[in-house]
Sphingomyelin synthase-like domain-containing protein
Amino acid sequence: MVFTSLPVATAITDCRPDKIISFGARLKKATLIFLGQGMSSFGVKTCGDYLYSGHTCTLILATHFINEYSPRSYHILHFLSWVFALTGMFFILAGHQHYSIDILIAWVLSSRLFIYYHTLANNRTYFQRDKNRMRIWFPFFSYFEENVKQALPNEYISPKIICEARTMLNSWFDK
């Protein structure tokens, strides 16, 4: 990348600037990284230019989804989801897998993505004013939300297995 050239946060990775000249060698390296899922436990060695943490994005998006789509009365679940997300980010930093700026950028990007999407989805006036402008600036959003005429209610229904487990536990304790 042009903007940043940070080394990997771990000291065990050898980051010599190797030049891969041929297209075949580049394709082979890209295939190895793809098949190894980018993880060092599969023998993948990449150097620098992380810029954001995908693990942090996953933690933050999962936390936002839990807080948005679970009932408001589930305070303990909301609190624990943030505790787990923050703990996960701490261990990413403690394990020297990312720099703190990577974590911060991932947090900002993923939380803004979640909030902007839900703002657009819950506010239909954006579509009513200028549909063509929305299609140009937000093509994916326009495609996925095209047939939705109004903001959908945030309804929560426990999965059937949870309801059955709750009934079974209540019957055990009532005896």
Q: What stands out?
A: The chain has two domains: 1-49, 54-174.
